[in-house]
User: What shape does this take?
Amino acid sequence: MKLFAKGSVLLSLGLSAMATAQQPNWNSPNQPYYGSPGYGQVQRQVNQYPGNYPRVARFQDDENIPSPSDGQLPSNPEPISNSQVSPLATPVHSNPSPVYGSGPIHEYASGVPTPAYGGTVYGGPANGQPCDSGNCGVGDYGGSCSSGTCGGAIQYANYGNAIGGSWFAGAYGLIMGRTDSRNVNLGYSSDMPSTTVFRTGDAFQEYAGGGEVRFGRCISPCWAFEVVYWGLFPDQSRATTFNSNYSGMLSSSIGFDNLLYDNGTGANTVQTFYGTPTRAAQAYRLTRSWEVQNVELNLLRIPVNQCGSVNYELLAGVRYLKLNDGFIWETDYTNEMFGDDLANELCYHIDIDNQLLGFQLGGRMDYYVKPNLSVHLGSKLGIYNNRVSHFQRIYGGNGNAYSSTSGQDYVIDERVNKVAFLGELFAGASYDIGCRWRLTGGYRAVSLCGVALTTDQIPRDRDFGTMPTMPVTNADSCLLLHGAYFGAEFVW
Assistant: This one.
């Protein structure tokens, strides 16, 4: 009986000791608690209850707490002091609550291709580190393809700001040229009637410098808007020739016989003042000018599809483009000095304004050759209403030239509306400098069809007499602007 009692006591002590040895200490107030991988190590609030049995407050991401790989809880976890337990858990990340998209905000893709029309980051973060760490623009490209959900776009808000607060801007230099639709013959020497000695192309400036600025704002992970302005501002170009340069008579290739001008001594044909094979003009001077200004307001879809190192985007917007073309051809009937005898100096002046307003669609693709280096290709296409202003006049110091049949002054001031088309193609490269700056450059070509140009408004010889009463504006020409752009872009 005593033996049975002693055995019972020993068995009870042994079971108690085993239970005590296997009891885990996960609920100890001194034990650290771990949250989801996206937030790093997080300490939980612990409430102390009577009997020294703590109760751990639950958080939303507790369901993601990793379990020991072998399914066994540690038998003797190393405790920490109560002083290390914070009263309320705080995620390590500076901005733990994503505003747009889905997924943990900390799971950024490295070297994500930049939103091409002005996204929020140039040179993505590396290895899941935010841009504030300085670890930008290195690492892989961001993995597999994604489209439609826009969730991946939150990766662009990687320097602690929600993407809805991201602005972008750029400034660029332009060197672009334009094509001349027609090289019209203006003058010849009477001893070589088949050889042109003076033409509109002699005063044509092909290339011009300009500038471009753009700014915009991301209004969601998928959408942004931008405002773009660029302009080309060439100087006036001038060409001059003199009758003394030729052995024959400096004569006009344009027939002005149906127009008259009175220099104060009686009316003569305008053809007389511009030179004939029997009475030469003493000097010609041609001045030409042109200017382009462009304004766009675009809505951007960023990104449409993101696939590893390739990024695609779409654009839709409103565009306004103004093209001015100027032409002034002067003749001096008496000598080779312009400005000293205005009554005997005539001026043929044409001024054209094309104002295109319409809707455009576009797209762009960026391919990241390296995490900081990308090449891009894009295009835009739109249909426009072209409001053409056409002014034309022939005059001298003693008044306007006039029609020999109707007597009406040769002054044309006409407004017409025409359908026009504008297409743009551009290609280039960009280099990301850190998280906020990018250098970019490339080639751009802009094609306009359905525009009016000055050289296309010179009437046929027989039409000069009827033009004042029956003006005709030719707006069926095409023009190509092309050249280089280079600049810097910034996001904040």
